Amino acid sequence: MTHQMCVACCGCGGLSTYPEGMARTHLTLAALATSAVPGLDIVRTAAFGTGTHNDFDAALLTDRGGRHWIARMPTNERAAGEQAADVVALKALSAGVRTRLPFAVSTFAGETRVKGTRAIVYEFVYGSKLRLGDIDNAQAISLGRAIGAIHSLPTSFVTDASLPVLTTIECLRSCTTLIDRAAATSLVPGALLTRWERATEETTLWQFQPTVINGSLTAESFLITDGAVSGVLGWQELKVGDPARDLFWLLGARDPQAADAGFEAYNEARGGDRQVRQRAMLYAELEIAKWLLHGTDTRNTEIVDDAVEMLSRLQDNVQNDSMNPLSPSAIPTLAVDEVEEMLSRRERTV
Q1: Closest-CA residue to 121 (of 3, 38, 24)
Q2: Which one in 20, 135, 189, 316 has a CA-CA gap of 20 to 30 Å to 129?
Q3: Interior/surface letters 79-106, b for 16+ CB within 10 angstroms, e for the rest
Q4: What is the pTM for the complete model shown?
Q5: Shortest CA distance to 55 belongs to which of 31, 73, 42?
Q6: Tens digit of each residue's pLDDT, the chain (350 residues)
Q7: Closest by alpha carbon to 260, among 171, 343, 331, 338?
């Protein structure tokens, strides 16, 4: 297998070519990098991917010793906030914490201020991006183990970094608040509201110990080398919370057996949370509610109509199970690949 290069600091998607008119951006970033990292001797530069929404100007740098680095600068306020949070998380992930992880995480190397924002330099991490539809059993097992390793980290380093620490009750409350807001739009089918409300009332679902979570994992968060996870991208949502938050996307694997293999590997790595898959399914379904609220909040009728259509399809999928909440015995019924596609569309509109 041929592996392209990518970096576990920005999730920018690999090598790319900038449009004409931005051709010198990587040279500018190289100059900024030498200011950010004293002693950095750059001998080669190249334009790098700019993120899902062209949120970053980025450059791939090679120093005289052959090591690779990434320099990037946000192009908008939202990206600047994401980058700042990612830097805080990467600094919190100390060398000792990283030894507990079976994959690489990029390291913050330096920064320099530029016109009200910051250019950041990171160490480069290699691997090829993972596609949700292409996950096989072997990769799913590695994914489950990698996520289990994140969730097994000591929570103390998150607390020490003043990052969010959510209790079980707070995790539940965030779901009920989201459901209430979605219900207030009068656009969610009653059967779905009943299903979700019953899930929040199912006490066995919420008997879990909050763990360290990445908080924003999707298939594209992972780098793969030789069929195994070699790096994880994007740590801006690092916190202590519900481990199911990091797992719902895995249910969208095209091969159901791959999803099963991933959850089995995860449970073997951690154990002790029998209902994690059911909560992951709830979170997956509630992503459509978030999409609906995004549409109503921005008064975008196209997004609202899309969310209503997705909710209708979801209702059809769960209709035969409408009297059975997302309890420990419930069978997942949502096609989560639809949710993954919706998330991609949402990201393009934010």
Answers
A1: 38
A2: 20
A3: bbebbebbbbbbebbeeebeeebebbbb
A4: 0.84
A5: 73
A6: 333 333 334 444 333 333 333 434 889 999 999 999 999 999 999 988 755 567 888 999 999 999 999 999 998 898 999 999 999 999 999 999 999 999 999 999 999 998 888 999 999 988 998 988 899 999 999 999 999 999 999 999 999 999 999 999 999 999 999 999 999 999 999 999 999 999 999 999 999 999 999 999 999 999 999 999 999 989 999 999 999 999 999 988 888 899 999 999 999 999 889 899 999 999 999 999 999 999 999 999 999 999 999 999 888 887 755 444 565 444 444 455 555 565 555 555 55
A7: 331
Q: Rounded distance, CA 32 to CA 107, Å?
A: 18
Q: How many CA atoms lie within 13 A of 290 on its CB side?
A: 17
From residue 338, alpha-carbon distances to 189, 218, 236, 342 in Å are: 18, 13, 25, 6
Closest CA to 109 of 121, 127, 93: 121
Phi first, then psi, for residue 324 (nearest 5°) are: -115, 110
Half-sphere exposure of 281 (CA within 13 A, CB side): 23
d(CA 84, CA 73): 11
Q: How many CB atoms lie within 10 A of CB 198?
A: 17
Residue whose C-alpha is closest to residue 270's, from 231, 213, 225: 213
Classify burial at 73, counting beta carbons within 10 Å of its beta carbon; exposed 0-12, middle 13-18, buried 19 or more: buried
Place of tokens 């740590």: 235
| Cα end-to-end span (Å), the chain | 35
Q: Which domains does the chain have, with CATH numbers?
A: 25-128 (3.30.200.20), 130-349 (3.90.1200.10)
- Residue 268 structure tokens: 């073997």
Structure tokens at 29: 């970033």
